[in-house]
Amino acid sequence: MSTPVRIVAINGSERDGNTADVLRYAAAIAEQRGAELEAVDLRDLNMLRCGPCGDCNDRLVRCAQTDDIPGVIDKMVAADGIIFAAPVHGFGSASLMQTFIERAGVGYLRFDRPLSNKVAGVISVARRYSAGEVWAQLSVNALLNRMILVGSGFPSQVHALHRGDALKDDEGLTNVGRMVERMIDMSTLLAEHRRLTGREILSVADRNERVGLPLNELQEHL
Known about the structure:
By secondary structure, the protein is α/β, with parallel strands linked by helices. The chain has one domain (6-221): Flavodoxin domain (Rossmann fold, 3-Layer(aba) Sandwich). It is built from six helices and seven strands, in the order βαβαββαβαββαα. The chain has helices spanning 18-32, 69-78, 95-109, 131-144, 170-197, 215-221; strands at residues 6-11, 36-41, 81-89, 92-93, 119-126, 148-149, 157-159. Strands 1, 2, 3, 4, 5, 6 and 7 form a seven-stranded mixed β-sheet that branches. Strand 1, helix 1 (18-32) and strand 2 (36-41) form a beta-alpha-beta unit. Helix 1 (18-32) packs across helix 5. It is globular, with a radius of gyration of 18 Å. InterPro entries: Flavoprotein-like_sf (IPR029039), FMN_Rdtase-like_dom (IPR005025), ISF_SsuE-like (IPR051796). One of its GO terms (molecular function) is oxidoreductase activity.
């Protein structure tokens, strides 16, 4: 019996509101397919902001700050797929998601790109404006980490203002459901390829693109 597909959804909202409702909807779709979807609510974490050390471009080891971020990174690395979900605040991504992207990307993911070839999905939630900009920002972050971003036809952008409005956006939810289905399908295909061939379907050879550090120093720590 095959292992169920495991998806971790990073919820960048400060509230248990529309973004959480969309992720609960996504979890129900995943459950119907026999997959597991776990939402990580950044609002519930002890997450420090990037500190004043300023040595991120020279470090060869993980971030020295002590908070809950390493545990979230470990969940992501163990998963088959990752969903990045955030509401629009001030015409951009909610600050919790931005802080997480900075802490995770600079402090943990840049050393050997451990999310390479994992399946990515992106959801933005907005009243009306900037849903596309936030969706694009989160998508570029997934691509930076060498993930496989699946499409859903129209992007998974859900429009909502008051609590509960997200569940009234039928078109947005349809796109979310389609995205989750395709994430499960792609994860299953990738797992089958690994089982049959013992290797990744896409190259992960050059796992670190950092500049300004001698290659031999990087290799000693990767």
